Amino acid sequence: MSVDATRPYDDANIFAKLLRGEIPSRRVYEDDHTIVFHDIAPWAPTHLLAVPRGSYVSWDDFSANATETEIVSFTRAIGQAARDAGLVAGGYRLIANTGLDSHQEVPHLHVHIMGGRALGPMLIENDGRE
Prior knowledge:
23% helix, 5 strands
């Protein structure tokens, strides 16, 4: 089910629970503002999720309301996690879904870091729907 990114933050979401330690994760990076962990349903040989510790619904919410320190830290954490995973030489993709049309599934900002093989085109071909 897609998330309406204009709705208020829901602290019962899976990433909020993960941040509170209620759900385990295989973390590969952690600092004061960000955690990065392995996706439990990977779409690529390396599929990590970067999640800010703050209560942000989407990239829009984060970019409008996070502090400069949070934004810089989150961006650097994503780069560090990609380097640590050995993704730079072959390349990698970052995806941050926001809202209904993108099929955002969790109402907490998260960035997918994927690599380890050729990932193909950015979007699937138009299936005939308008």
